Amino acid sequence: MWLLLVIASFLLSLLLVGLVKTWLSAQLLDIPNERSSHQQPTPRGGGLGFLVAFGLTAGAALIISQVAPTLLPPAQLQPHPWRLVLPLLPLAIAGYLDDRDGLPARRRYGVQLGAAALAIASFGPLPGTETLLPVARVTMIGLTAIAITAAINFYNFMDGLDGLVASSTAIQLACFALLLNQPLWWLLAAALAGFLYWNWSPAKIFMGDAGSTILGASVAIAILNADTLVTAGSAALTTLPLIGDAVFTLTRRLLARENIFQAHRTHLYQRLQQSGWSHAKVATLYMMLTALSCQLAILVARRYAVAAL
């Protein structure tokens, strides 16, 4: 049943992103500027297409688990779709509005903090923090909220080249489905694969903030929903290529006393593209690095599992 849903998610995304490109291209057009890595006006908002595809197939999975549990046992429905809606829907709405009209930074971050709070309320703080003293527990919850908003923004920052974030995140989500035993992520990975048909270089449409912020939040939620602190830590290793680039660039800019709130083109992936690498070559490099980090995550999780026996 999961295979059929995965195929449906891919095909729906392929169709819906194409429709978004046709219907919303005039409203959500990304005009190149001095900070852009593309040279032609390109529609954005493609994230809406793969998000709707994911939502429809996740909803179908929920219905099947209720009416035909022998085909899809309810226990396999991880993470639960309804619990995902709470934190992701506000981000999708804010992302669309930002793509269309632009939102003030404070308002965007307020929505992100609210989404982080909803994610923690829905999925709980990191596993292993239940036994902490109240003050330490509250501190960990606050740090977790900051980490979630950081992931949301870092994935948005990294969405600057054709196919880069979509391809790397699809690999991550497939890894989470296996490593964390959260099969629902197969559906979002498949939806991203459908989106990549339109987003691979030369991109015909961008995902926009509605897509990139959702992906950052989804990765954070998957880690938050891990069964143990070991598996959560192992899953976090898969973020090394994307978040590692963002953190390295942020740290370098802080040390150089640059204004970190000012837009720039100094991420590692941007420097590779500026040095002559094609969008496809950079995206492929990050895909390979993400696949290697996923393999590392699986090896670490297995080693600790064996050591715990």
The tally of domains stands at 1
Largest sheet: 2 strands, antiparallel
Uncertain segments: none
> Tally of extended strands?
2
Broad structural category:
mainly alpha
Taken as a percent bin, the fraction of beta residues is under 5%
Count the helices. How many? Answer: 12
Mean pLDDT over the residues: 90
Provide the succession of SSEs: HEEHHHHHHHHHHH
Q: For the terminal residues, how far apart are their CA atoms?
A: 33 Å
Round the Cα radius of gyration to an integer and report it. 19 Å
Helix proportion: over 70%
Main sheet: strand order: 1-2
Shape: globular
Account of the 3D structure:
- This protein is mostly helical.
- It has twelve helices and two strands.
- It is globular, with a radius of gyration of 19 Å.
- It has one domain (2-29, 40-308).
Concise account of the structure shown:
This protein is mostly helical and 309 residues long. 70% of the residues lie in helices and 1% in strands. The protein has one domain.
